[in-house]
Design goal:
Chain lengths: 389, 108
């Protein structure tokens, strides 16, 4: 039997196209093509596209989490679609439409539960990560008695999920150890109009950015009994924010040593937080209103993109000197940036130029320009092993 | 005489806005703006997101004047920003009519 298997493997190797040898998936990722409802499966080692998967619905605000085996990507679409994509086959493994209007999702610590945050009807739903069978629904009814849109859903250690209620201004923490009977702990008066949320890389602190007031809401998940506290309150110092033409995002907190970098809402500024004291350490003047603020995995640089009309620009900031070391112009409508696992490359989606540009993060040289139809989010499979992603 | 001229101007201003549709290239640019930039809150299919749906059915209860004012001036207290500066008033009028008729998705 063993011998026959050996022959089969040899045949497969000799006959390309008939069968392919198994491969790993740690250097794979997906690029969302928002207008057509496709994702590309890409590979970062040789910077190539392996497949295009079609039929994922409205991906105008799509996000992705990974199964811990890094083979499957869960794509959360605007239209409530939840699609499990098999990266190795370049095909849809399973797809459901679970709500009318969704915003994002998360996967549990053990990889067994996928949670989706919905705008309509406002709440969070839990699904079996294998089959996508529904397990539980958590309607986001705030203290005001009304159903709220849900933002900033992340996983946290202890089989937990944490999210914020945009309309009600609350943060909820869910213990999903029994996923059919999730236990919810609610924190009211977290702040006005939380627009997104994230956790620190150790999963200890949940941070919600606030649109309706200057400040961030902070919850220590080690000490939830202490409740939510406001940090950097009044960072605008009483000045009126500018109109916001694209909401900032807190995809993954940008950290460098003991400093965290977060967008100031409605201002051409980055806020630098001292992560020991949760106080403002500095504020940096930048090219426009920040949207994504992402740290290179080694923390040496932070890369920032911007809301219209400055969305042709990316700035790179040195986290030691807090100075801008490079300003790039990747093209029209830069939407997202994603580093390879150890940060030697960054992939940048440029929506209106229909291209993903890949840069060397030391020299800033452009390494590749990969065609993509209205690309938005870029998500590499290394996210599978990070808390909160 | 001056007052007559002013009255005349006021009458013109109060009348139904003249709808000269933007040139095709500008129309395409405006459609792109609606689907992709407005769409990041209102959805690529305009069925809503953080912002409300902008489908003809969803807009049925609103007057053209209200919609025009919302586009140009934004809505304080919400994330809706003023788009004056990105659009002329005539372009805002064209957009309102196109949204009310559900024409922007078809033009994609």
């Amino acid at each position: 039997m063993k011998r026959y298997l050996g022959v089969a493997v040899l045949l497969a190797a000799l006959l390309p196209g008939c069968a392919t040898l198994p491969r790993g998936s740690g250097d794979l990722g997906v690029v969302v093509e928002r207008a057509r409802g496709n994702v590309q499966v890409v590979e970062t080692t040789t910077r190539t596209r392996l497949a295009r998967v079609e039929g994922l619905g409205d991906l105008s605000h799509a996000s992705v989490v990974y199964a811990r085996d890094q083979r499957y990507a869960y794509v959360f679409g605007r239209d409530g679609g939840l699609t499990k994509v098999d990266l190795l086959r370049g095909a849809i493994a399973k797809r459901i439409v679970q709500a009318g209007n969704a915003i994002g999702g998360a996967i549990s610590q053990d990889g067994k539960i996928v949670a989706v945050s919905n705008y309509e009807p406002g709440g969070v739903r839990l699904f079996d990560a294998g089959t996508l069978e529904p397990l539980a629904e958590i309607p986001a009814v705030g203290a005001d008695g009304k159903r709220s849109k849900v933002v900033g859903l992340v996983d946290a250690p202890g089989h937990r999920f944490v999210f914020a209620l945009y309309d009600a201004g609350e943060i909820w923490m869910v213990d999903a150890r029994d996923p059919r009977q999730p236990a919810v702990q609610k924190f009211a008066n977290a702040g006005r109009q939380p627009y997104d949320g994230t956790v620190t890389s150790d999963g200890r602190f949940y941070i919600a950015g606030l649109f309706g007031e200057d400040g961030l809401a902070l919850l220590d998940l080690w000490q939830p009994g202490q409740g939510v506290r406001k940090v950097l309150a009044g960072y605008g110092r009483g000045t009126q924010p500018l109109p916001v033409y694209k909401m900032p995002h807190l995809d993954y907190i940008a950290a460098a040593g003991e400093q965290l970098f977060v967008p100031a809402v409605g201002r051409h500024e980055l806020l630098v937080i001292d992560a020991r004291t949760w106080t403002e350490r500095a504020r940096l003047s930048i090219a426009g209103q920040p949207v994504f603020v992402v740290a290179r995995p080694d923390g040496r640089h932070v890369w920032v993109n911007f809301a219209p009309p400055h969305n042709d620009t990316v700035q790179v900031i040195d986290t030691e000197t807090l100075k801008t070391v490079r300003t790039l112009k990747p093209g029209k409508a830069v939407l997202h940036m994603e580093f390879t696992p150890r940060g030697e490359q960054v992939w940048v989606s440029v929506r209106d130029d229909d291209v993903v540009r890949v840069y060397d993060t030391e020299t800033f040289a452009e390494l590749a320009a990969l065609p993509a139809d209205k690309p938005s989010g870029i998500f590499f499979s290394a996210r599978a092993h990070r808390i909160g992603q | 005489m001056l007052s007559l001229v002013l009255t005349g101007l006021a009458l013109v201003a109060a009348a139904e806005p003249m709808l000269t549709p933007p040139e095709p290239a500008r129309r395409a640019a405006l459609t792109h703006l609606v689907l992709h930039d407005c769409g990041s809150c209102h959805g690529l299919t305009l069925k809503g997101g953080l912002g409300p749906a902008l489908t003809p059915a969803a807009l049925a209860g609103k007057t053209a004047e209200e919609l025009r004012a919302t586009i140009l001036n934004g809505r304080p207290g919400t994330p809706m920003p003023p788009w004056r500066g990105f659009l002329t008033e005539a372009e805002a009028d064209w957009l309102v009519r196109a949204l009310q008729r559900g024409e922007l998705i078809a033009e994609k």
